[in-house]
Design brief:
The chain is built from 4 helices and no strands. By secondary structure, the protein is an all-alpha fold. The chain folds into 2 domains: 51 residues; 78 residues. It is rod-shaped and about 110 Å long. The termini are far apart.
């Protein structure tokens, strides 16, 4: 891969911080440190150009599942584990909602039948009482 030369202007404080970090990490000068910073930036951003970053609170049960997926090597990294855990969680919620919906439909039908029976008994009772 060929290299291009670019000019970058940054605040003095940023340059001083970059040089201090580069010295501490043993970089071979300012250019090497800037190159590495660019590589880190690209690596961080390349897979997220079409995504949003969110911070969220998730149930402990789900975080346990995430750690377990990584620990058992069922996921390649935490991103993969989070996606897998969220897929499983969504399927569970979908099941719960469908099951709850079926149960609700059953109860409504049962109560409607009961209401119809009660109305019929009231009509019969009214007819009998008129005799």
């Amino acid at each position: 891969m060929g290299r291009e030369r670019i000019d970058v202007r940054v605040e003095t404080e940023i340059l001083e911080e970059l040089e201090a970090i580069a010295f501490r990490d043993g970089a071979k000068g300012r250019s090497a440190a800037v190159r590495e910073a660019v590589y880190f930036y690209i690596d961080e951003k390349k897979d997220t150009w079409n995504t949003d970053k969110h911070v969220l609170k998730i149930p402990k049960r789900l975080t346990d599942r995430i750690y377990r997926l990584v620990r058992n090597k069922d996921a390649t990294d935490f991103d993969d584990a989070i996606k897998a855990a969220l897929r499983a969680w969504c399927k569970e919620r979908e099941y719960d909602l469908k099951h709850g919906r079926y149960e609700l439909d059953r109860l409504v039908a049962e109560n409607m039948e009961s209401d119809i029976a009660n109305e019929e008994m009231a009509r019969v009772a009214k007819k009998v009482s008129k005799r």
